[in-house]
Fold this sequence. Notes:
Layout: H1 2-28, H2 34-46, E1 50-54, E2 60-64, H3 70-85, E3 97-101
Parallel strand pairs: 2-3
Antiparallel strand pairs: 1-2
Amino acid sequence: MESKHLTHAIRTAAFNTVTALARDLRVNTGYAHAADEAHTLIRQALTPSSDIHATGEGQMTIHLDPMPTPRATKAIADVCEHLTATRTHYPGTGSPFATRSRTIPDLTQTIRQCQESWCQGSKGRKITV
Length: 129
């Protein structure tokens, strides 16, 4: 019976966390689809692995992986900025934590025209790789 209560308490805490973060996403970001996608986006942000770094000053920094799309990554980054600005404390420690969202690399900066002769298309056009 105690394991059932513990499981219920963990599920309730997880639901409350997702609900609070989804509310922050709707209120504190300019994410256009927040009304429809807030809970899903927060669950997606919390599902992959992330890194936690503790500093000597008693602060923790949590780095979240980027989301599948740039607009979703921007929305999560806005929530992270809001949480950091509010000096939210890690539960039970009284130590503040900062949240960061890693950005998606800009692949347009790495695409360039191929200069090799084998890159020439059938009509002499260059192929971008």
